[in-house]
């Protein structure tokens, strides 16, 4: 099952060429649909096989390849059309099937000058099936070697974001859009079964593509003696190149930058330049069509070479590997190779698991130490604050004690003043009473003197004082004492 994500740069309506063409089919096709042209980058995705396991058996669901009924739709995607084929010539190449087209879109990438892609929507499923059967694997020109690769697109998504366009959906992985790189993969991966050679080095199949805009193909054809180096560490030992974006990294036995690129970018197909073999990181196996081809449950090796006498690729089986020698020694060597490879991979897996466990342990220890340090610093900070608060509390307590003493002193002073004022008032009242009594006595004396002066009978007499209250001699004595004073 295949899907497309197209990062559109800009979209313009494609106009058909003027009617100067003498082909009558071209004139009639103008009335059926309006072709468009989009500038952008196409990302091709396919579904991953689902693995199911039980207590007794483990099986892998079959991959939905090109000709499965469940994968067929009316959307047809042609991966690459050579640039020497114009839009009108492509319509002529499609022939009578153009009448079944409902929509046609040409997709151009400015970074890829030697080819363009085509997305076609047909009227019904029968028309789409007929188109694929007729043109899948067909050469665009009898004198050239480029063939037509067709996929049924289950979904097509357009986006302005390059990041969104490069992110696969859950359960999907990205395939290269270079036709040569697609043909390098085995059939279970690319659904292409028409290639007879390994497309390596100076193979005419590669050199026929004019500009070699694919970086992977450029690295495969590099003949200047300059070593290919890792883009990260610069080492030239065991270089691997990503089939999706062309990133060059070193192998897992060096510093592992190729597999780090897979983990970061999720591009699972990588080509080893030294052996021209492709590794699938998801399936953890080689997917090069000449390294492994499935016949039942047995893995066999096929040897196909390019015969360039006429500039074309063909099959040339080595007769020395026929018969009993092929069925005995080659199988034995392959079994031993697979056994050694499995053991080596298991050893590497255990080694990396140990390294990961140690790294995890170191990370946990560092985190625990950081937590303990942070807690100690926090505890010390709280302790310092507690000491400062204790000092403040003690100061406040001292101030309260001094205020209490001052308050008690003020209360005592106030009481003494109040007592003095009470005594003073009492003394004043007594003085006032004494003065009032003296005034009364004086008034009585003066009235008595005046009365004696006016009476003839007692004229010349003497006035004697009379004690009015004989029971209070103390008071009279006090009064006399005051008079004496």
UniProtKB/TrEMBL annotation:
Any single Pfam family the record assigns to this protein: BRAP2
Domain RING-type: 178-218
Gene3D superfamilies: Zinc/RING finger domain, C3HC4 (zinc finger)
Region (Disordered): 7-30, 459-485
UniProt record, GO biological process: protein ubiquitination; Ras protein signal transduction
SMART domains per the UniProt record, alphabetical: RING, ZnF_UBP
GO CC list: cytoplasm
Domain UBP-type: 212-308
Any coiled-coil regions, as ranges: 342-420
Keywords, comma-separated and alphabetical: Coiled coil, Hydrolase, Metal-binding, Zinc, Zinc-finger
Ranges of compositional bias, category Basic residues: 476-485
Domain of life, source organism: Eukaryota
InterPro entries: BRAP2/ETP1_RRM, RING-H2_BRAP2, Znf_RING, Znf_RING/FYVE/PHD, Znf_UBP
Amino acid composition bias (Low complexity), ranges on this chain: 11-26
Single GO MF annotation: hydrolase activity
Name of this chain's protein: Zinc finger (Ubiquitin-hydrolase) domain-containing protein
